[in-house]
Amino acid sequence: MDRESFTQKGAEIGYETLYTLYEAAVKKALALPYGELTPKKIGHINLIHKFQKTYRVSDPIDWKLLLDKVKESGYTLDYNFAGIDKPDYGKTYPDPEMMAYAIKIGLTYEKGSDAHASHEVARYFGTATETEYDDWKEA
């Protein structure tokens, strides 16, 4: 979804409602909808934040509870760096605070970069884990 479509929908139904619908969709994905054939990786868990610099909302989603559900369901979390390049977001999916909690609860994760060209593979991996996220061990 592009910024214009997202902000139009948010203005139409309310951003809190949009977030609540997104949360329901994530929970549905975590409910093993295809039984044992369900892929056990959840990606871009907080993609709803992609355009967050363009609007104001009190986020109604309990992200800790959602991350607990990811772990409880046996999923691996996609720790994705593509959001850093998004002008209306500028962070990882999940964001640093959520990722600190994921690590604290022992949630299994894999790094991703959404690379579409060889020079994009693993971009930001080293800098993020070696600098601003060093305090994860203490989380």
Concise summary:
This protein is mostly helical and 139 residues long. The protein has five helices and three strands.
How is this structure best described in words?
- This protein is mainly alpha-helical.
- The protein has one domain (3-138): Alpha-Beta Barrel (TIM Barrel).
- It is 37% helix and 8% strand.
- It contains five helices and three strands; from the N terminus they run H-H-E-H-E-H-E-H.
- It has a three-stranded parallel sheet with strand order 1-2-3, with helices on one face.
- Helix 1 (3-13) packs across helix 2 (15-30).
- It is globular.
Oligomerization state: single chain
Strand content: 5-15%
The shape, in one word, is globular
Average pLDDT metric: 89
CATH superfamily: Metal-dependent hydrolases
The beta-strand count equals 3
- For the record, give the distance between the C-alpha atoms at the N and C termini, rounded to a whole number: 33 Å
Number of helices: 5
Gyration radius (Cα, Å) is 15 Å
What is the helical fraction, as a range of percent?
Answer: 25-40%
Tell me the strand order in the biggest sheet: 1-2-3
What's the helix-strand series?
HHEHEHEH
CATH-defined fold name: TIM Barrel
List the uncertain runs: 129-139
Can you summarize the main beta sheet?
3 strands, parallel
Assign the structural class, choosing from mainly alpha, mainly beta, alpha/beta, alpha+beta, or little secondary structure: mainly alpha
CATH architecture identity = Alpha-Beta Barrel
The level 1 CATH classification is: Alpha Beta
Count of discrete domains: 1
GO biological process, one term: L-histidine biosynthetic process
GO molecular function, one term: histidinol-phosphatase activity
InterPro entries: Histidinol_P_phosphatase_HisJ, Pol/histidinol_Pase-like
Protein name: Histidinol-phosphatase
